[in-house]
Amino acid sequence: MSKAEDRGLRALQAALAAEHAAVYGYGVVGGRIGEKRRAEARTAYDAHRARRDALVRAVRDAGGEPVAA
Q1: Hey, which bits of the chain come out as E strands?
Q2: Do 30 and 41 form a contact (C-beta atoms < 8 A)?
Q3: Are the beta carbons of 8 and 62 closer than 8 angstroms?
Q4: Is 55 in contact with 19 (CB distance < 8 Å)?
Q5: Residue burial 25-63, b: 16+ Cβ < 10 Å; e: rest
Q6: pLDDT in tens, 13-56
Q7: How far, in Å, CA of 23 to CA of 18, rounded?
Q8: Residue 63, SS3?
Q9: Residue 1 gets which letter from DSSP?
Q10: Contact 12/62 with Cβ under 8 angstroms?
Q11: Would you say the pTM of this structure is higher than 0.70?
């Protein structure tokens, strides 16, 4: 793997770790959030899950093993 590819993979892994954290955070907040903001939180949760899943695929496509949540 070239240095550029390695940097790219590390960037993907960092982004994936951030999405894992966001998904976890929305999971925690989801049970405590008021009715008025619940739909908004669910939309954000779903968006972060989709980005997380896309990043898992991107890491694998780049030859890496996705970081654990």
Answers
A1: none
A2: yes
A3: yes
A4: yes
A5: ebeeeeeeeeeeeeeeeeebbeebeebbeebbebbeebe
A6: 999 999 999 999 999 998 899 999 999 999 999 999 999 999 99
A7: 9
A8: coil
A9: -
A10: yes
A11: yes
